[in-house]
């Protein structure tokens, strides 16, 4: 192992030496609130009914711009946290799949009980196969990526500092900067809705952790850069609309846009730099952070997404700009908290049913079979 590798190891473990980083957990919570905000604005029908060029239009798009890096942050956190983990714990992805399946069943039952949709056996099978049908694009992408993470971690742990910076650079150039400038998805990232994009973000998050970048930055500067980079997209869109360049204008408002990616990294660094020591906020963060994925699954479930959220908030367009901001923020928080409560009830039920111990038992049995029959007890997975 090189001297650079040793330095990287020392930087990465220091985060654990002082306990759990609640700044990262807080960022996880904030990013999910931002994701809900995106859905209130888009699926809720607000953006599509506002007149172009009005103050309310710019206000709504400002909220959109500020929230757009949320999905990137969530994936970056996966790499930041996951890179220092040991072998993959496959029971976790099994538990997540059971969680998603649970909500798929509930959503399907509600659809049929409310007669919102007529029964169709083929459609029923599709509704109960969320990964195969890509019902939740993020979970499908994450599900696939999860099985690659042991390899990603081995790769990142084997690189010295210069190689890691090189990896960070080529990902940024070919997956973000180049597609943004030339408006060409040369890596087939599907505008960021893909397993490949999440995997690249995982690697970037791991690089941030292993390089110890969060130790060298000024937190306030990172937050300021986040605002500058995200709002730059909205300003550019506005200028492009005035010049009748709508396609170009939207180019800085996508998941893979270089300004949005850099803004995401800035918030990750700010979150990692944040130290929360007071017990009251720590308790709140500790309670809410494990619920965030459930918030995503619940409010994007078929029934809620298509029959509750769709067009539900278009009437916000009649409000003044300041009231619109308050209404969107309050609605996003209300949805987040309501879904968190539902997810807490689900977790309580699963704890009573001992679902996690059951999935751990399944993993152990599967590992024993694989070790004896296939891997011959080779380590690393």
Give descriptors for this structure.
acyltransferase, transmembrane, mainly alpha, 381 residues, single chain, Acyltransferase, transmembrane helix, 0% strand, globular
What does this protein structure show overall?
- Mean pLDDT is 88; it is low at 1-17.
- This protein has helices spanning 3-17, 22-42, 46-49, 55-67, 70-82, 90-113, 121-127, 137-146, 149-158, 161-182, 195-211, 219-242, 246-249, 258-273, 279-288, 292-299, 302-309, 321-353, 355-375.
- It has one domain.
- 73% of the residues lie in helices and 0% in strands.
- The chain is globular and about 65 Å long.
- Helix 12 (219-242) runs antiparallel to helix 14.
- The chain contains 19 helices and no strands.
- By secondary structure, it is mostly helical.
- The chain crosses the membrane at residues 21-41, 61-81, 93-112, 136-152, 164-182, 194-211, 223-240, 252-272, 284-304, 324-345.
- It is a multi-pass membrane protein.
Low-confidence segments, given as residue ranges, are 1-17
DSSP helix fraction: over 70%
Alpha carbon gap, first and last residue: 21 Å
Shape: globular
User: In percent, how much strand structure appears in the residues?
Assistant: under 5%
Order of SSEs, N→C?
HHHHHHHHHHHHHHHHHHH
What would you call the quaternary organization?
A: single chain
Helix vs. strand class: mainly alpha
The residue-averaged pLDDT reads 88
Number of helices: 19
Strands, count: 0
How many domain regions?
A: 1
Output the radius of gyration.
22 Å
How many strands, which pairing sense, and closed or not: the largest β-sheet? Answer: none
